[in-house]
Amino acid sequence: MAGLEAYLLFNGNCEEAVKFYCETFNGEVLFTSRYGDAPVDVAVESKNKIIHTVFKIRGTEVMASDSHSGNDVNFGNNIQLSVAFDKNTDPTETFNKLAQGGKVTMPLQQTFWAIKFGMLTDKFGVNWMFNQAAEKQ
Questions:
Q1: End-to-end alpha-carbon separation of the chain, Å?
Q2: What is the pLDDT of residue 137?
Q3: With bands split at pLDDT 50, 70 and 90, how would you rate the model's confidence at 134?
Q4: pTM of the entire structure?
Q5: CA-to-CA distance for 71 and 91, rounded, in angstroms?
Q6: Are 61 and 5 in contact (CB under 8 A)?
Q7: Residue 115 belongs to what H/E stretch?
Q8: Contact residues for 11 (Cβ-Cβ < 8 A; gap 6+)
């Protein structure tokens, strides 16, 4: 077993979302393929959409794509991406960047388990948790 990986689906704005995440977390796109690259018939309006991309943020690879035409993604609260920060790295700047255009559901604050913990839903509908551990991870 190779491990567990996050895969995000978007309604046609995958490229914009991945660019935003890479800018926010100083990440990088490792691979991108578009529906037009696939050896199957694709609607003209879908040819430039992302069929699969892999990007790396904070040492973790994340995969993503645009949903197939006609299969809209329904965003919900069933998954959150958790970003860990050690006690010497303040998450405030990154949290604030990701919150732009989104909704903070729990502001960064001290908790009984963390120096700072907060949650938000970004402008693409993805839920995030930020945790700054009291001990170095």
A1: 24
A2: 46
A3: confident
A4: 0.84
A5: 35
A6: yes
A7: strand 114-121
A8: 66, 67, 72, 73
Q: List, for residues 63-97, the tens digit of each pLDDT value.
A: 999 987 667 788 777 788 989 999 999 999 999 99
- pLDDT tens, 15-35? 999 999 999 999 999 999 999
CA dist., res. 23 & res. 41, Å (int): 33
For residues 95 and 75, give the distance between their C-alpha atoms in angstroms, rounded to a whole number.
20
pLDDT of residue 13: 94
Q: Report the 10 Å Cβ neighbour count for 7.
A: 11
Q: What is the C-alpha separation between 27 and 60, in angstroms, rounded?
A: 9
Distance CA 96, CA 116 (A): 13
> Any idea of the CA torsion for 71, 124, 32, 64, to the nearest 10 degrees?
-60
Nearest-angstrom CA–CA distance, 12 and 27: 21
Q: How far is CA 64 from CA 14, 49, 86, 102, in A?
A: 7, 11, 27, 19
